[in-house]
C-alpha cells in the first residue's frame, strides 16, 4: 500500500526543531531548548516531583506535546525514530532539577533505555548527593510481542506510556512524594497493554522508503517505527473482525505467549480504553473503530469506565490505529491504589493542548531566547567528588594502559566492522574507533592523567558518551559512569590506593549497574560475554592476565552462539556461524591491550 512521500518541510534535518518551536508559541507554560531539543515547563514548581519522558521524534504529540501543567515537566526529543543522546537527557535533568526529585519514564526500546539510563548515571556521577532523587521507569505494553520473542529485549513501549505519565503526573501535582509517584507509575505500567494495526508503513521525511504491505494486506501487532508486526493477513477483513482480533490479543488469558493482563472474565472487569490514531487514519474511521472497540468490550462483559479517542502517540503518517487497555484494580485486590483513585488522577484537568480530555487554547506569546546557559554547572564535578581520590603508585601506567587499549581498537576496526557487517549494520568498528579517538583526545587535553582514577574514569565515560553513537556508546558510557561512581564510594573521604581488589570491586559494581539496563546475560553473543568473564575472574582472586585470557576465550566462543539480543537476533542464524560478535571482540581487544601493558 502506497503512503505519500510528500511532506511540508524546510529541511528534513531541521524538521524536529521547526516543529518544537510551535509549542512555546502556543503555550506560555512551555519553553523549548532548541539546541538540545528539550521541551520543558517555563515555571517548574519546586514542591512537585518532576516527570521526564521522551524518545525519538515522529510520535507526536508524544512526548513533547504533553509538557505542561498536570503532565510532563520535560520531554527530550531525538531525531525521527532515533533516541536522543545522553547529553540532551542530561540537559533536561538539569532544567527540572528540584528538591522533590525526578521520575524518568521511557518506552522499552534499547536506545531509549540506554541513553536515558546513561544520562541518569552520568548525572549521578557528577552529582552523587542527588543520585537518590532520580528514578527510572520503563513501560513495555505491547502485547503483540510474545514472551519467547521478547525473552531478552522484552515488549515494546507503545501508547500506554502516555497513560502512565498522565496518571503519575497528576499525583505529583497533588503533592505526592518521589516514592509515591514512582510507585504509581510502576503500578500503571504493570496494568496496561497495547496492540497496534496498520494498513501500511509510514514514510520518513527525506527518505525514499515505501511500505512493503500490499494493497490488500494489513498487519496486526505493528510497532511505531515501521517494525514488522505479529502477522500479516490478506484480504483486509471487515472492521468488526479486525477490532475483535485486537481485543482478543489484549484480553485473552489462555495464550501463554501474550497473556499479560490477568483479567477474570467474570463480567466484573473494569477498564480504561484508549483508541489511538497512529497518524494517518481519518476521523471518520476513528469514530467507527472506537464504536467497534467499545461494543466488543461490552459484548465480552467488560465495563468501560473511561474512553480516550484521539491522536496520542503516532508513527508519523502511518495509516493505522492502536488500542490500549488499562486494567483497573478490583475492590478485593491488593493494590497500592484503588480504581477510583486511578480514575481521579486520569480525570485531573491538564493545561495541555494535545490532551483530548482537557483542551485549552491560549494565544501565542513572544518567543524568548533559548536557554542555553548552564546555571547548574553541568559537567562539573561536585565539591565532594573533587575531594575524593583513588590513586596508584605509577600514574603514567594507567595512562599507558588506556592509550594501548585505544590504539588496539583503532587497529582492530576493520575486523570488527567486517564482523558487524554480517550480523548488524556495520558500524560497530567505526563507533569503537570514534570512542577511542575521544578518549585519546582526553589524554592529550590533560583530562586523563592517572592522578585520580575517579576523575579519569569519569572523563572516559564522558568521551565515549559524546563520541560513540547507538547502543554501544550507551553501554560503554553507562559502564564507565558506574565505574566512576563505584570508585567514588570506595575512596571514602580519606581516599584509597588502587590495586587489583579495588579494581575488581569497582568493575563488579559497574557490571551489576549495566545489568539493570540490559537483559543480555552470558552466553548471549554480546559484549557482555567477555566482560562478565573478565570481572568474574578478578572477583575470584585471579590476576589481570588470567582475567584477560578468560575474556578472550569468551569472545571467541561467541562465534558458536545463537544471537538473542540486539539486531543480530533478527538475522538468519546460519549467516553468523564462525563469526565472532563484534561487540564482544571490541571488549576483548580493550582488555587484552590494557592488561598486556599492565603486566609489562
Automatic annotation (TrEMBL):
Gene Ontology biological process terms, A to Z = anaerobic glycerol catabolic process
The family database entries (PROSITE patterns) matched by this protein are listed as: DHAK (PS51481), DHAL (PS51480)
Record's keyword terms, sorted: ATP-binding, Glycerol metabolism, Kinase, Nucleotide-binding, Transferase
Domain (DhaK): residue spans on this chain: 11-355
**Binding-site residues, substrate:** 56-59, 107, 112
GO CC terms on record?
cytosol
User: Mind telling me which Pfam families this protein's record contains?
Assistant: Dak1 (PF02733), Dak2 (PF02734)
Reaction(s) catalyzed by this protein? D-glyceraldehyde + ATP = D-glyceraldehyde 3-phosphate + ADP + H(+); dihydroxyacetone + ATP = dihydroxyacetone phosphate + ADP + H(+)
Q: Which family does it belong to?
A: Belongs to the dihydroxyacetone kinase (DAK) family.
What is the designated name of this protein? Answer: Dihydroxyacetone kinase
Source organism per entry reads: Serendipita vermifera MAFF 305830
**Species lineage:** Eukaryota, Fungi, Dikarya, Basidiomycota, Agaricomycotina
Amino acid at each position: 500500500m502506497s503512503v505519500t512521500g510528500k511532506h511540508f518541510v524546510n529541511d528534513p534535518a531541521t524538521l524536529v526543531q521547526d516543529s518544537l518551536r510551535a509549542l512555546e508559541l502556543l503555550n506560555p507554560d512551555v519553553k523549548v531548548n532548541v539546541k538540545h531539543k528539550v521541551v520543558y515547563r517555563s515555571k517548574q514548581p519546586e514542591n512537585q516531583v518532576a516527570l521526564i519522558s521522551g524518545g525519538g521524534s515522529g510520535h507526536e504529540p508524544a512526548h513533547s506535546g504533553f509538557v505542561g501543567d498536570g503532565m510532563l515537566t520535560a520531554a527530550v526529543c531525538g531525531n525521527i525514530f532515533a533516541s536522543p543522546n545522553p547529553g540532551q537527557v542530561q540537559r533536561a535533568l538539569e532544567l527540572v532539577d528540584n528538591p522533590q526529585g525526578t521520575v524518568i519514564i521511557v518506552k522499552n526500546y534499547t536506545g531509549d533505555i540506554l541513553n536515558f539510563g546513561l544520562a541518569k548515571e552520568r548525572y549521578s556521577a557528577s552529582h552523587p548527593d542527588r543520585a537518590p532523587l532520580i528514578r527510572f521507569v520503563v513501560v513495555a505494553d505491547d502485547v503483540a510481542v510474545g514472551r519467547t520473542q521478547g525473552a531478552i529485549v522484552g515488549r515494546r513501549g507503545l501508547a500506554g506510556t502516555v497513560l502512565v505519565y498522565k496518571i503519575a503526573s497528576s499525583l505529583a501535582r497533588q503533592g505526592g512524594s518521589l516514592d509515591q509517584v514512582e510507585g504509581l507509575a510502576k503500578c500503571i505500567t504493570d496494568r496496561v497493554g497495547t496492540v497496534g494495526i496498520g494498513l501500511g508503513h509510514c514514510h520518513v521525511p527525506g527518505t525514499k522508503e515505501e511500505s512493503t504491505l500490499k494493497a490488500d494486506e494489513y498487519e496486526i501487532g505493528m510497532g511505531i517505527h515501521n517494525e514488522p508486526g505479529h502477522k500479516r493477513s490478506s484480504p483486509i477483513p471487515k472492521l468488526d473482525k479486525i477490532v475483535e482480533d485486537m481485543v482478543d490479543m489484549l484480553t485473552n488469558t489462555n495464550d501463554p505467549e501474550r497473556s499479560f493482563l490477568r483479567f477474570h472474565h467474570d463480567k466484573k472487569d473494569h477498564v480504561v480504553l484508549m483508541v489511538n490514531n497512529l497518524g494517518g487514519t481519518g476521523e471518520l474511521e476513528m469514530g467507527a473503530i472506537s464504536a467497534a472497540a467499545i461494543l466488543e468490550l461490552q459484548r465480552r462483559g467488560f465495563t468501560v469506565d473511561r474512553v480516550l479517542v484521539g491522536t496520542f502517540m503516532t508513527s508519523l503518517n502511518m495509516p493505522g490505529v492502536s488500542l490500549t487497555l488499562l486494567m483497573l484494580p478490583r475492590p478485593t485486590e491488593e493494590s497500592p491504589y484503588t480504581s477510583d483513585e486511578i480514575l481521579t488522577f486520569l480525570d485531573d484537568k491538564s493545561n495541555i493542548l494535545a490532551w483530548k480530555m482537557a483542551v485549552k487554547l491560549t494565544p501565542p506569546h513572544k518567543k524568548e531566547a533559548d536557554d542555553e546557559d548552564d546555571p547548574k554547572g553541568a559537567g562539573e564535578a561536585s565539591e565532594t567528588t573533587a575531594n575524593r581520590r583513588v590513586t596508584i603508585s605509577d600514574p603514567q601506567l594507567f595512562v599507558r594502559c588506556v592509550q594501548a587499549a585505544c590504539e588496539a581498537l583503532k587497529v582492530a576496526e576493520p575486523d570488527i566492522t567486517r564482523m558487524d557487517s554480517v550480523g548488524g549494520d556495520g558500524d560497530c568498528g567505526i563507533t569503537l574507533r570514534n570512542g577511542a579517538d575521544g578518549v585519546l583526545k582526553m589524554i592529550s587535553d590533560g583530562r586523563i592523567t592517572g592522578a585520580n582514577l575517579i576523575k579519569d574514569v569519569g572523563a572516559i565515560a564522558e568521551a565515549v558518551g559524546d563520541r560513540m553513537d547507538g547502543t554501544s556508546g550507551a553501554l560503554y558510557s553507562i559502564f564507565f559512569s558506574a565505574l566512576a561512581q563505584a570508585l567514588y564510594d570506595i575512596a571514602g573521604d580519606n581516599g584509597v590506593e588502587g590495586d587489583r581488589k579495588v579494581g575488581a570491586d569497582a568493575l563488579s559494581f559497574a557490571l551489576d549497574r549495566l545489568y539493570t539496563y540490559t537483559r543480555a546475560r552470558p552466553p548471549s553473543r554480546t559484549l557482555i560475554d567477555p566482560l562478565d568473564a573478565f570481572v568474574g575472574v578478578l572477583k575470584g582472586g585471579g590476576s589481570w592476565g588470567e582475567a584477560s585470557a578468560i575474556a578472550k576465550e569468551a569472545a571467541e566462543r561467541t562465534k558458536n552462539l545463537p544471537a538473542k539480543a540486539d539486531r543480530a537476533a533478527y538475522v538468519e542464524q546460519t549467516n553468523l556461524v564462525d563469526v565472532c560478535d563484534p561487540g564482544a571482540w571490541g571488549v576483548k581487544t580493550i582488555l587484552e591491550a590494557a592488561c598486556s601493558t599492565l603486566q609489562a
